[in-house]
Amino acid sequence: MKPRCVILGAGGHAKVVLDCLEATQKMEVAAVLDSNPKLWGQEILGIPIRGSDDLLTEIFREGIRLFFVGVGSIRETTVRQKLYEKALTAGLDSFALLHPKAICSPRTQIGKGSLLCAGAVLNVGVVLGQNVIINTGAIVDHDCRIDNHVHIAPGVTLSGSVWVQTGAHVGTGASVRQNIIIGKGAVVGAGAVVVKNVPAGAVVKGIPAR
Predict the structure, then answer these.
(1) Which of 54, 70, 128, 143 suits a disulfide with 14, CB 3.0-4.6 Å?
(2) pLDDT of residue 77 exceeding 90
């Protein structure tokens, strides 16, 4: 019998998570929770949307012990972080999720709740924290460090030894030079080319990013 899990969020990114879970064939999705009451009672990819994340304690009582955050981000990652921490507080645990068509060196470390989407690449020495998204087709090269709750959007390229700190968002198609530090909660705009460190909480865009 496969372990059962609950997905938090019922938007577009949740579909990506569900599709990845289906591809791995290692988990049964028992339910989806979302804060939008208009979605309650509907389905997403055939999975029922039972209600809000306030049901997490009830989910735990039903014997479901695993969860995965199915909310993405286009800027701030705080919603993802709050959901992740709420589920942990309710007694549930998460797990790393790797799409079968991702490429991942065996010499990496991947934290719980982190997602490696189809076509993404993790090279040797990469360390991912918890609740990280490495989205479709993103490349994370050797010895990068990606801290908790970071979102690396589709098509991003991180050169070697980049450090992306907690809660940062690196937008679609951005490129980051080797040895760069992207600070806590910073946002790198789509298509940016980052050639110098980005301070915590900063928003940068353009070529070069500023």
Answers:
(1) 70
(2) no
